Amino acid sequence: MTLVNCASDVSEDEEGRQVTDHQQQQQQTVGCSSSSALDNWRHTHVVTKLEAMVQAMQHPQTGVTFRAQKAFLTSVPAAVAGSDLIAWVRRYTGAEEPTEANHIASLLAIYGYVYPLSDDYSLAVRDDPSCLYRFQSPYYWLSISGRPDNLDYAIHLVKRMIRSKQKPGFEDFEKLALSKLQKLLADRWQFIALQAEEELKLLRERKKNDRMVLEMQEQAYWRVHRPPPGYINSVDHPVPRHFSLTQTQNRLAKQRRRRQHKESLVSSQNAHHKSGETIIACYEISKAFDWFLHTRPAAPGTAGTMAQQPANGSNSAAGTAGAGPAVDTSFTEADHSGGPSSDSAALTSGQSPWVGDDVAVFQNSLGYGESGLTPKQVKMWSAYFDFLLRDAAGREYFKQFLTKEFSSENLSFWLAVQDYKFGPNDQLRSRMTQIFDEFLAPGAPSEINIDSKTMTITQKGMQSPNRFSFEEAQEHIYLLMKKDSYQRFLRSDDYKTLLQSAIERHAMKKRGALFNFGKKAAQPTSSCAAHPTVTASISQRGKVETQSSLEASSSSGTRVLKTRPVDQAGPSGCEPVANKASAGEVAPWETEAASEKKPDSSTVTPWEDG
Amino acid sequence: MEEQDLTGEIETLKKKLAEEQGKLSDADLILSCQKIEPITQVNIKVRKVLKGHQGKVLCMSWSQDKRHLVSTSHDGKLLVWDAFTTNKEHAISMATTWVMACAYSPSGQFVACGGLDNKCSIYPLLEEEPVTKKRLVGTHTSYLACCQFNTSDHQVLTGSGDSTCVLWDVESGQMIQSFHGHAGDVQALDLSPSESGRVFVSAGCDRAANVWDMRSGQCVQLFDSHESDVNSVRFYPSGDAFVTGSDDASCRLFDLRTDREVAVYKKESVLFGCNAVDFSLSGRLLFAGYSDYVLNVWDVLKAKRVAMLYGHENRVSCLRVVPDGTALAGFKDSAA
To answer: pLDDT value at position B120?
Structure first.
């Protein structure tokens, strides 16, 4: 260890002199370093941490243990074994996994703080006691020397070329680079050649051991900054930031002076509870949709990889039996604690869609395939009103429901204002008058119900057409729909049958993930009655989506629909479902193992498969 | 003199209060989440590898059809992939090689992109030769760092190195609204998931995340607790909070309603800056891609790391979760 320190100290001195000469000349001729300092700004945090780590490593007592390495005739100063390095890093950073420590150690090499004493170009630190590494001299650290430019590289290459006459090893890629740089820096080539000669002369005056060390250090430095072909330059950061650091800081200071001091640093406690609550509430609502958060019924053979849910006890026996009632209850109350566990069985229903090569299966899982809407999609509509509004199919069904209740003009108005708000600028005026005539004028065909205050605001807003002229009215209608119609929609039979049939249709396709047919047989009346409307709407969905002119986002659906024959949806939709409800027979389109009535528990977790 | 002393004192008191607040904030979210079951294991596997870019991949965006995605790279190419079959459906050569922003339109018919050329352009995908039908949407005075379509195909929101964000009308190429207030380059922006389309957040090199009201063009909230450039920002699914990823190796969750930082996601062994963040569908998991080729998966509610994914040969530069939450794609250097 002491040997190494000496060597690096000495070399620092020598190279210190060299550096100042070199740098002075550099700055005179090229004036480069300032740009590299800016680049390093992005690196600053990382660099400080890495250098702190390296310095801690070199600490006599608590640092890494060094070993001497003897090679042939010369004995190279002490070096560190790969495994020691990794073990030390692990203790220092508290990394829990060995791969993480390995990774960090490799990063030290990649960023040039450590270099391997081996001939190959790889910079990965191996967890091997026989792989040795040495610390790079601080002169070459990123924070001190920054990133080199072509001039430095040219000088280095010239030196290598000269040296290669005695000691072969001048690589092809280096030759190539050298010839390129000769052309690029032709005007300064004399200086470069002279500088190279100077440096080599100084080097020859050193002791042999020191010389070897210095050469290795320089080589390692260039390995990092000018990697051979096939290796990536990791230190490079692409685009420099536009504003320099000082500019940003000045602007920030100005802003702070102008900005008023934020009030209420005192009301922190309650505010924190609130933020925590809203975040958790959101999570509770949507957690059913994340496949990895689903519980697995305790089944033999499947590794229990998922989180346990307390309310799961009753459902574990038969996932299928649980599916029926759980699906119903989740509509009536906003109780999600027991819901998701078995709902998830309904929702995930099988494999991750990304496994396998069958496009039809994939499209199915997205809701564009033969099975139509996925249960997950339908279920998501009940989580947030926005999900329903965002989904084209959701809007359609909601609209049908509203038409029955004679309040569909609300949705139409909302959609029209959305189009208006996000539509092209030149159509603002025309659309505004259209909307007014259609929805707001007294005696309008689809007159919406807003209070007079909102009406006056809207009329004032309409005088100067801008995208937010109808904002108040739209918000009012939105809240109205959300509090009233939306809730009723979720409780309606329409929605329930939608969900049920979505589950059924998707369940058919899966191996063994079947749901309780007994249950369905018990509700034949409601399902049969609703069938005509549901299936009719399914068959129409293809057409509806193509014709829908209300929003731009539907055309993604059209594009995809081209891949499947639209007419298939019609007849196949009507017939088999009706069969199912009445007789529980196997539907004509069912394939392989779908007819087994196995409970859900035996399916392999989707992500363990394949 | 007295005034200076007093202001100095105020500053120190403010700092102290902020510290105390900080302690409260972390503890609080974690405390309230104690009853929530922990995530025992997250199983994420590499399913598809999209190879085809010759240079560093700079940006990507999923289509609303949950199947296609667009990516741009340093070799000057914009590629539209079918992620499931891994086929490349379109390959568009761009005039500039550094294209740092790209976005898929909601209808799937257009892609918007831009970069060092300071411009945001739109390419129609349904045309025979999209390159010929390129349309210019807007120009900044510095590079384009990020862009997104604003709910429809007709409006694009861009963030630029000139520290402004601008909302453009696609058809006319005119600026609808501009947003000034950042002190440094804007690096990332995200639109609120709420359907009202009035809020978006942008973050940049001034270490701050600004929340904007699109109607007034004003910055309504500012969060500046990061210690270095903020590279990425993403809204929490509820739209009430957002997370930022920064060069200071931490990700932070900020809540809009209570106007404060709620959680910090960092670890001793995570040294490198975070370049890209995204949430899982429910918002429970935070996927963060870092400059040291790693993807860390954080449990949002408990502020713990649950998984590490290595699958890249270089920095993760951009990462997005598919709109239905079943997959995520991260890009850098030739592999997805």
So the answer is: 92
> CB–CB of B65 and A557 under 8 A?
yes
- How close B176 gets to chain A, by Cα (Å)? 8
Is B258 close to A272, i.e. CB distance below 8 A? yes
Topology of B3-331 in CATH? Methylamine Dehydrogenase; Chain H (2.130.10)
Domain CATH code at residue A227: 1.10.1240.60
Do both A466 and A476 map to the same domain?
Answer: yes
A609 touches chain B (CB under 8 A): no
Is the pLDDT at A336 greater than 50, yes or no? Answer: no
- CB–CB of B63 and A467 under 8 A? no
Q: Each residue of A365-421: pLDDT tens digit?
A: 777 766 677 777 888 888 888 888 888 888 888 898 989 888 888 899 999 988 888
Task: Check whether residue A402 and residue A507 sit in a common domain.
Answer: yes
Query: Which of A130, A145, A160 is the last residue before a domain boundary?
Result: A145
What is the rounded average pLDDT for all residues in chain B? 83
B 273-292 near A (Cβ less than 8 A)? 273, 280-285, 291-292
pLDDT of residue B322: 62
Average pLDDT, chain A: 65
Same structural domain for residues A117 and A201?
Answer: no
Residue-wise pLDDT for A567-601, tens only, equals 333 333 333 333 333 333 333 333 333 333 333 33
Please tell me which of the candidates B172, B258, B291 has its beta carbon nearest to residue A275: B258
Q: What is the pLDDT of residue A88?
A: 83
Check the CA dihedral B170-B175-B179-B180 and report its sign.
Answer: positive
* Same domain? A129 vs A170: no
Residue of B nearest to A53 (CA): B271
**Structural domain boundaries, residue A106:** 41-145
A298/B contact by beta carbon, under 8 A? no
Same domain for A375 and A496, yes or no, is yes
Write out chain A residues lying below 8 Å of B62, CB-based.
none
Same domain? A383 vs A480: yes
Res. A286 pLDDT band, cuts 50 70 90: confident
A497 located within any domain: yes
CA distance B180 to B219: 8
Q: A173 lies in a domain?
A: yes
Do residues A114 and A182 share a domain? no
Looking at the 3D structure of chain A, how many domains does it have? 3
Cα distance from A171 to chain B (closest Cα, Å)?
24
